[in-house]
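[worker-b] picked up task from shared queue
[worker-b] task type: protein-ligand structure
[worker-b] ligand name resolved to zinc ion; SMILES cross-checked against name lookup, match
[worker-b] sequence length check passed
[worker-b] input payload:
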Amino acid sequence: MIHYSCDMCGKGLLVDEEVRYIVKIEVYAAYDPMELTEEDLEEDHLNDIEKIYQQTENMSEEELQDDVYKCFRFDLCMTCQKQYLHDPLFRNVFRRSPNISPN
Ligand SMILES: [Zn+2]
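[worker-b] inference finished, payload out:
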């Protein structure tokens, strides 16, 4: 049997609690095709590609992937699920701690 525990408070799930909530967070770069103009298509992008290539040269494969797509999955108990829904982006946490920058 798989044992789940709440990723926020550590409480055992399906043991202490009957309900288990799953939080899935996907973070990925949004490319909006509507922003492309005809001028964009006519431009020579070889320089841009060269620039991007140089920027990525020193990055690890993991860093590169994080840049494009990242997925998180957490298990929560009912109490933490309620708390999480109040502040899913932890804005209040950022505001309270001067050491953590939201940027
Ligand atoms: Zn919890």
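[worker-b] attaching auto-annotations
[worker-b] The mean pLDDT is 82.
[worker-b] releasing lock
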